[in-house]
C-alpha cells in the first residue's frame, strides 16, 4: 500500500483560523491523491483520527508535512512524541517532514504575494 | 517619500527559528526595494526599531505584512495595538496587511513543495 501525505496544522477553536488552513491545504489535497489535513489540537480531524482512518484503509506509511513556518517547541518535542505514540498504537511508519516554511517555494511565494498585491511600492 | 514594506515575524529566542524566517524573507528583501524584516518579540530588530529607523530616514507610510499562516490572537489584538502605538509615537501611517497565509500564492507553493520534494507518492 502506498504512502499517505498528511498536512498537519496546529488547530484552534477559532473557525476562521481553521478555514485559513483548509484553504492553504486545498491545492495540495487536490493535487496529491489520498492526502489529508489534520490538526494537533483544538480542531478536527485530529492527527490520531486521520492516522487511524488511514490505517483502517490499509495505509502502513504516512508522511506528515507540518503547516508551520518554522520549528518551535511543538515541532521539536510535541509532534515527535505524538508520532512515536501513533506508530506504536497503529503499527504504521510515520515520517515527519520539515516545517513547510523551510521549503524554498514558500519564500518565493511570499515575494510573489507582496509584489503582486500586498505591497504598494515594489521599488 | 514612498511606502516601506515590513515583513513581521513573531520572534523567538531560538536562533534556528529566526534563521528560518530570515530565509523566508530573503526573496522579498531582494525584490522589494527598502523592505525590512522585524520581530514582534524575543528577537531583533523589533518592529519599533524598524519603524523608528524608517521614520528617521523619511518614510511616513509603512505596510506590515505578517509572516503568519493565519490570524490568531497576536494578529487580531496584539499587533493592531502595537500599530496604533507606533503610529502615534512616530507620527507615521501603518497599514496592516492580512497574514501571508491568506494569499493564494502560499497554498500553491505548499502544493509545489509537497509534490516536488516532500511527498513520496504524488498520486
UniProtKB/TrEMBL annotation, chains A, B:
Pfam families: CbiX (PF01903). It comes from the Bacteria. Signal peptide: none annotated. InterPro entries: CbiX-like, Sirohydro_Cobaltochel/CbiX. Keywords: Lyase, Metal-binding. This is CbiX/SirB N-terminal domain-containing protein. It comes from Marinobacter suaedae.
